[in-house]
Amino acid sequence: MGDRRSGKSSIAAVMFQKTPPSETLFTDPTTEITPSGMKSFMNFHVVELPGHIDYLKPESDDVFRDKGAVIWVMDAQDQYLDALTHLLDTITYLAQRWPAINVEVFVHKVDNLSTEFKNDTFRDIRQRVQDELSDLGYDNAPVSFYQTSIYDHSVFEAVSNVVQKLMPQLPTLESLLNSLCSTCRIQKAYLFDIPSKIFIASDTSPQDANSYEVCSDLIDVVVDIGELYGWDRKSEPSYFGQEKIDYGNEACESLVMMERRGYPYLYLREMNRHLALVCIMGDDSPMQKKSLIDYNVGVFRDALAKVWQW
Question: Could you tell me the CATH superfamily of domain 8-165?
Fold first, then answer.
């Protein structure tokens, strides 16, 4: 959701249709309810709502039925006072009728703004919304804020955080990743959905600004190599029942290690065709211990199979 020309269609095109960001300049404005999404390990169902239609009325409740989150896209380069009013109306309406829906505010198009102006704009929007909600008695409304742009990794990282809130398995996955990081001296670990580049879980250690970007770039490398040298592999029943999911190659064939300046090395291993574990290894986890790391990652994969009943 969001006002017209806020960037909703561009985000959907980049995220789910793999449109290059530079080509979204020619995207037509959305004039009707437009479903989109991606079929992967997790099926993402997204509905884009045009900004010129009022959905805050009982006869439009089907739009919000069975939805876990509403993403409100706000253009940070435009005058946003009217958009703030529409956002507050949406939050209060959802709090009254659909209190379980999370509201995720994307302060969008921040790529061309200076760091100081970008941060000031973000703080101003967040503070105005929080103050108004407090005055209206909705202090506990489930609202989160993110700075996003389609020209870097920020929109993928923001959507990853949105998706994680909707996953009941998240605490279990975080616990498994924490245990793996502790055992193998891993600096940071992500569990990626490969086609969308959304990470569905990570360990709970602090995350620096570049760690997701580095791991996401490795996913791109693996996808490109897979398109050139990949082959069909055996399939097994998936978590979703009727569909089939690919278990991937054997361990030695699904392992990628890439050295990168500033990082000891990166480690990627497929959990299945759609899921990959990507790790930034620590200084005290040298490549000479790879066999031990492989064993522990195999144990982690077996635990994932039990979580999702592969």
Answer: P-loop containing nucleotide triphosphate hydrolases (3.40.50.300)
Name which of 131, 80, 134, 69 is nearest 110 in CA terms. Answer: 80
Say which CATH topology domain 170-308 has. Answer: Beta-Lactamase (3.30.450)
- Two tokens, residue 85: 């009013």
Structure tokens at 310: 């592969």
Q: How much is the pLDDT for 251?
A: 42
Q: Is the pLDDT of residue 13 over 90?
A: no
Distance CA 88, CA 128 (A): 10
Domain borders along the chain are 8-165, 170-308
Between CA 268 and CA 277 the distance in angstroms is 6
Which of 74, 55, 142, 158 is closest to 102 using CA atoms? 142
What would the pLDDT profile of 201-225 be if each residue is shown by its tens digit?
Answer: 999 988 877 888 888 888 888 777 7
Round to whole Å and give the CA distance between 12 and 32: 14
Q: Look up residue 86 and give its amino acid.
A: H
Tokens of 171: 């605490």
